[in-house]
UniProtKB/TrEMBL annotation:
CDD domains the UniProt entry points to: TrmD-like
Family named by the database record: Belongs to the RNA methyltransferase TrmD family.
Encoding gene (name): trmD
HAMAP family per record: TrmD
The protein, known as: tRNA (guanine-N(1)-)-methyltransferase
Catalytic reaction list: guanosine(37) in tRNA + S-adenosyl-L-methionine = N(1)-methylguanosine(37) in tRNA + S-adenosyl-L-homocysteine + H(+)
Role of this protein: Specifically methylates guanosine-37 in various tRNAs.
Phylogenetic placement of the source organism: Bacteria, Pseudomonadati, Pseudomonadota, Alphaproteobacteria, Sphingomonadales
Enzyme Commission (EC) number: 2.1.1.228
Length: 242
């Protein structure tokens, strides 16, 4: 099964864009995933081909019409999950990326202007996804981010299969820091332990660094990690409550 991505956008020329280069691009050419960028404007019915209109209630900007976007979506709907890019969505996580990467692919809606008419989300089963707490001018960059994160996890895409597993977020922690030659640079050397050849010591050092850095840089992740570690398994909890 190949991971099939369909992107609904007003700017299909933005695809594959950066996903045509490097590992994702090679995987695309090798057929390990597919990408179809569809122009939402092709689904308009009026002579002006309008995809947007002024916001109900007034205010700045324009809103993407539910009827036009739904027509584009309905023409591409199948068993794949439908995701819409919006800063109002659930923050994208590595866990969700991993689920998506093991599935059949995704249909991704890219917003523009002020975003989509809300009725679209009431009328169709659509997962609203945000790539972070900042505002982009359109959903295309978000779709590229999401697809890049998925594609690198597909079988045969990354050089070393294990390099996906120790990474930041996979364990609930940030990854440990990396070093490479030269041994000395601007008077700084590589930590001695990494040159010791003692694999147990190296693993312990890396674990300790990952924990310390997560605690310092991402107290939010650290709290969740510690919480998950200290919480009793759900079965034990239930017994105690009974
Ligand atoms: N008025 C909206 C922002 C619209 S930005 C608001 O304040 O919530 C225009 C489009 O860019 C959105 O429809 C969405 O598709 C995309 N976009 C902007 N920021 C995003 C983010 N953080 N994550 C995902 N998509 C985003």
């Amino acid at each position: 099964m190949t991971f099939a991505a369909t992107v609904l956008t007003l700017y299909p020329d933005m695809f594959p864009g950066p996903l045509g280069a490097s590992l994702a691009g090679r995987a695309l050419r090798e057929g390990r995933w597919s990408l179809d960028a569809v122009n939402i404007r092709d689904f308009t019915t009026d002579k002006h081909r309008s995809v947007d209109d002024t916001p109900a209630g007034g205010g700045a900007g324009m809103v993407l019409r539910a009827d036009v976007v739904a027509s584009a979506l309905d023409a591409h709907r199948d068993e794949r999950p439908i995701l819409a890019m919006t800063p109002r969505g659930a923050p994208l996580t590595q866990a969700r990326v991993r689920e998506l990467a093991t599935g059949p692919g995704a249909v991704i809606l890219c917003g523009r202007f002020e975003g989509f008419d809300e009725r679209l989300f009431e009328a169709r089963r659509i997962e609203q996804v945000s790539i972070g707490d900042y505002v982009l001018s359109g959903g295309e960059m978000g779709a590229l981010v999401l697809l890049d994160a998925c594609v690198r996890l597909l079988p045969g895409v990354m050089g070393a299969p294990s390099s996906g597993e120790e990474e930041s977020f996979e364990s609930g922690l940030l990854e440990y820091p990396h070093y490479t030659r030269p041994l000395e640079w601007e008077g700084r050397t590589i930590p001695e332990v990494l040159r010791s050849g003692d694999h147990a010591r190296i693993a312990a050092w890396r674990r300790q660094k990952a924990e310390a850095d997560t605690r310092l840089r991402r107290p939010d992740l650290w709290e969740r990690h510690v919480g998950a570690r200290d919480r009793p398994p759900s079965g034990a909890q239930r017994q105690k409550d009974d």
